[in-house]
Amino acid sequence: MTTIELSALRHLWLIDLDGTILKHNGHLDGQDTLLPGVQAFWQQIPAHDMIIIVSARPPAFRASSLAVLAAHGLRHDDAIFGAPQGERVLVNDIKPRGLQTAIAVNLPRDTGLADLRVQASTV
User: Fold this and answer.
1) What is the full DSSP assignment across 56-113?
2) pLDDT of 51-61, one tens digit each?
3) Measured distance CA(48)–CA(12) in Å, rounded
4) How far apart are the first and last CA of the chain?
5) Cα–Cα distance for residue pair 64/58, rounded to 1 Å
6) Would you list the domain boundaries of the chain?
7) Whole-number Å distance between alpha carbons of 4 and 115
8) Which end of the chain is more exposed for a tag (fewer CB within 10 A), N or C?
9) Helix (H, G, I), strand (E, B), or coil: what is residue 118?
10) Residue 122 has pLDDT above 80, yes or no
């Protein structure tokens, strides 16, 4: 089990679509399948947080892909399609009190989010 420990501040979630939320390349055969633990994980994301979906899928698949998420009740604030297939790099500062403002989690493809837990601070 991997735990993401968060501050009490609002958060930005950048979540990959293929291989993380949906089965990798499921859209190619019309079989977009939600991976294990995704809905339960989504419920752990604080309601006031922002979620941006990131995908290398061509923009032509945007509407159908987002419809799958909506059908499963997975909220999001925005989505980026046509992203490069390579590494996604986040560069951020450290707050003056020491809070590191960049967190990265790499998961094996198509395993889902069942072994990922969110622990948000109330302070």
Assistant:
1) -S-GGGHHHHHHHHHHTT---SEEE-S--SS------PBPTT--B--------TT--S
2) 999 999 999 99
3) 10
4) 24
5) 11
6) 2-120
7) 11
8) C
9) strand
10) no
Distance CA 36, CA 50 (A): 22
pLDDT digits (tens, 9 = 90+) for 12-24: 999 999 999 999 9
Could you give the CA distance from residue 81 to residue 16 in angstroms, rounded to a whole number? 10
Token digits of residue 13: 């979630």
> Is 50 a residue whose pLDDT tops 80?
yes
Over the stretch 62-119, which tens digit does the pLDDT of each residue have?
A: 999 999 999 999 999 999 999 999 999 999 999 999 999 999 999 999 999 999 999 9
* pLDDT score at 123: 63
Q: Between 1.10.3470, 3.90.550, 3.30.70, 3.40.50, what CATH number should domain 2-120 receive?
A: 3.40.50
Among 3, 55, 2, smallest CA distance to 27 is for: 55
- Selection from 117, 30, 96, 107 nearest residue 67 by Cα: 30
